[in-house]
Amino acid sequence: GGANQVSLIEAVANILGIKDTKNINASATLADLGMDSLMGAEIKQTLERNYDLVLSVGEIRTLTVKKLQEFQNDGSEEVIEVANGVTAGNNQVEFNKNLVPLETVVNMKKGESNKPNVFMFSAIEGFVSALEEVASKLPYNIYGLQCTEDAPIDSMASMAKFFIAKIKEIQTSGPYNLVGYSFGASVAFETGVALEAAGEKVSLVLLDGSPSYVLTHENAMKNRHSDNKVDHRDAFTYFVLLFKEMDYQVVFEQISTKKTKEEQLEEVVNILSDLPLNKDELKTAAKLFYGKLFVSFYYKPVQKFNGNVTLITAKDNFVSLGPDYGLKPVNIRFL
To answer: Number of folded domains in the chain?
Structure first.
């Protein structure tokens, strides 16, 4: 097949999953635009391999679209060749064959009776399947907590209360061991705070996530708009892009042609109607996704967590929150 010539900015945008760079805030950093550790490593390699640009992790984290433009202008006509149709998306979310979990609690691993219980909180798609390999290697009794349709998504406190009730059905008193992945890190954190407030001892392990980390995704959405505002249409747009390779702005504008939120939700289903997905389940999944996303955006812990917190993250941290992801104090384990 043929090949496309891709400029420096286009190459970086492809890695970030951004197809239309015209409306991006030029002062936005790559971290603001949603760059995570994996994307950062890929961008670092691309700059070094194809453009002879050797930058530190810190420099890449604070790299702006404007600075990329300057690099591109300095390199004049330099381009790289990529195969037609090959793009690097930013979809860190993977849905299961069902779009909405049917069970709140999943027994992921049955250890010996004298081993502690570990409760794992899923990422934003609601399933704990992404944590199965991790669970298989741990010598504990492991339970996965999934966000089903009946889970309250009006606030992080409501979600924590919901999951505490499920945890108490398995283990009536502490100490509790909680693990949260990505979005689930915020849910685990608030659950830990609530359990501590009830007099329980809690240990937290956060896998590449924290309450502050989620805000980097909100900033990435804001920086797609000249007015730096974000609303439910962005969540619906992001949801569509989890299933289809489409331009963010095109999807956003198509959804925006509908006036009410319910009509916009119907438009989401309409855009995805050619896929073999159940429409009712698709609508429910989109509602849950939007609800959880904005709950995480608005979440600010009102109480301090006093227990042990361990953050596990990539060694080359491209997130503009510092190596502790805004958690202090915290034990950091780099992978």
So the answer is: 2
Note whether 157 and 62 are same-domain residues. no
List of residues 6+ apart from 85 with CB closer than 8 A: 1
Q: Say which amino acid occupies 37.
A: S
Residues 176-195: what's their mean pLDDT? 94
pLDDT in tens, 33-65: 767 666 777 788 788 888 888 887 667 877 888
Helix (H) or strand (E) holding 179: strand 176-181
Q: Is 85 left (phi over 0), alpha (psi -120 to 50) or beta?
A: left
Residue 252 lies in a domain: yes
Instruction: Give me 306's structure tokens.
Output: 């006093």
Q: What pLDDT, on a 0 to 100 scale, did the predictor assign at position 161? A: 97
Does some domain include residue 84?
no
- Going by the DSSP 8-state scheme, the letter that residue 324 receives in this structure is T
How many CB atoms are closer than 10 A to CB 291? 18
Contacts (Cβ under 8 Å, ≥6 apart) of 58: none
Chain centroid, CA 203 distance in Å: 22
Residue 312 in 3-state DSSP?
strand
**Beta strands, E only, 198-315:** 202-207, 308-313
